[in-house]
Design a protein that fits this description.
Length: 168
């Protein structure tokens, strides 16, 4: 069994993913890191040089490579669930856990991070709100479990996921 963390950038997927894997005796995999390593450039450079559509295609290819993985906590990119084919493949390999955070919380967490290509705009807060409004219905529909991590510590978020997994 794998646990697939989904949600917007800055929702805590990487931080929670590392801790969750450690607490559950699982291995951790970050899809964005895998893409960066495969493409030999950071995500922001992929967006700048090859475009978002190319990046989304690479995301789909990465999921295909995960089909035989077991006992992993996988952090996905914030937009990975935008494609139905990605959701279908992800659901075949694990349970999808949505880490949600309110727009202001996300902004506070990531506004100083220049490697976030979707936020390289004049008004990042407005961009966060717009993208979250577009994605929230998708996140809510595809998630098997949801955690509002807006006001939780990393440990508290991981514990909520562990309790949900134990109840299954």
């Amino acid at each position: 069994m794998n646990i697939i963390l989904i949600g917007f950038m800055g929702s805590g997927k990487s931080s929670v993913g590392h801790l969750l894997a450690d607490k559950m005796g699982m291995r951790y995999l970050d899809c964005d890191e895998l893409i960066s390593n495969t493409e030999k450039m950071p995500i922001s450079a992929i967006f700048a040089k090859k475009g978002e559509e190319y990046f989304r295609k690479v995301e789909t290819e990465v999921i295909k490579t995960l089909q035989d993985y077991d006992n992993f906590v996988v952090s996905t990119g914030g937009g990975m669930v935008l494609r139905e084919e990605n959701v279908k493949m992800l659901k075949e390999i694990g349970r999808l856990v949505l880490l949600w955070a309110e727009p202001k919380v996300i902004f506070d967490r990531i506004h100083n991070q220049s490697h976030r290509p979707l936020l390289n705009v004049p008004d990042p807060m407005a961009a966060i709100e717009k993208i979250l409004n577009e994605r929230r219905p998708i996140y809510d529909t595809v998630a098997d479990f949801k955690v509002d991590a807006s006001n939780l510590k990393i440990e508290e978020t991981a514990e909520k996921i562990i309790q949900w997994i134990k109840s299954k």
